[in-house]
Amino acid sequence: MANSPLFQILWVIAAIIVGAVMAGAWTGPHRSVSNLSRWATRLYIRRVPAWLSARAADRFAFRGGIVALVLLLAVAWLIPPPPPEGPNDAGKATVTPRPPDNVRAGRHVDMDLKNAIVVHVPKTKQVRIVLLKDDPEADQFAWEIDAFLRAEGYTVVPRLFFAMAPGGTTPVGTSMYPDEKDANVIVIRIGLNDRS
User: Fold this and answer.
1) What mean pLDDT comes out for the span 124-152?
2) Which of 56, 57, 60, 40 is nearest to 48 (CA)?
3) What was the pLDDT predicted at 105?
4) Angle at the Cα of 37 (from 35 to 43), degrees rounded to 5?
């Protein structure tokens, strides 16, 4: 509601009205009566009530205007924004899209990979996952491996991404080897999906 155009327009109009009343209470054409009563007379309002003619009316209007502005700001600040609108799929049939023929099935952590990690990667070593850049399937597979490693008590260091130069051979599959720069780190490299 706070982000709706109607609410914003009403809020601006209310702020302008309060500001105009405050300005009218602050300055006026005569000092013998309240500034607001003189403005009412200038606006061709013939019957000005006695309470509006009293000098205290300006003071109350100005202080009330400050309170009203604070309340308007509080309302604008405290009303939470509406939740984002999702797609309206009510009453529509859901059809699962068929993957293209040239896309291979996604990889998942299976018993062979789990056994290979447990046998070949000591828990005293840190593990770094290195994966092919801009490959959503490899990224998803890396998150599954990361979750398995953490569940087994391994220390996982921040991952790295690699990209091959044009014309180079892109690594395929998953491999494990010691890091050349740090003997305390085992690298699990995730290349292109080689599973059918």
Assistant:
1) 88
2) 40
3) 63
4) 105
Handedness of CA 159, 165, 169, 170 (dihedral sign): positive
Q: What percent of the chain has pLDDT over 90?
A: 2
Percent of the chain with pLDDT over 70: 74
> What b/e string do you get for 26-45 counting C-beta neighbours within 10 Å, with b at 16 or more?
eebeeeebbbbbbbbeeeee
- 127: its two tokens: 């593990």
Mean per-residue pLDDT for 142-156?
90
> Where are the domains positioned within the chain?
5-78, 111-190
SS3 assignment for 77-134: HHCCCCCCCCCCCCCCCCCCCCCCCCCCCCCCCCHHHHHHHHHHCCCCCEEEEEEECC
- Indicate whether 92 pLDDT > 70: no
Residues 6+ apart with CB under 8 A from 69: 15, 18, 19, 22
Strands 174-178 and 185-190 come out as: antiparallel
Closest Cα to residue 188, out of 153, 152, 157, 151? 157
CA pair distance 37, 49, nearest whole angstrom:
8
Highest mean pLDDT among 63-72, 126-135, 186-195: 126-135
d(CA 170, CA 162): 10
Angle at 189 between CA 185 and CA 192, to 5 degrees: 175
Higher pLDDT, 39 or 112: 112
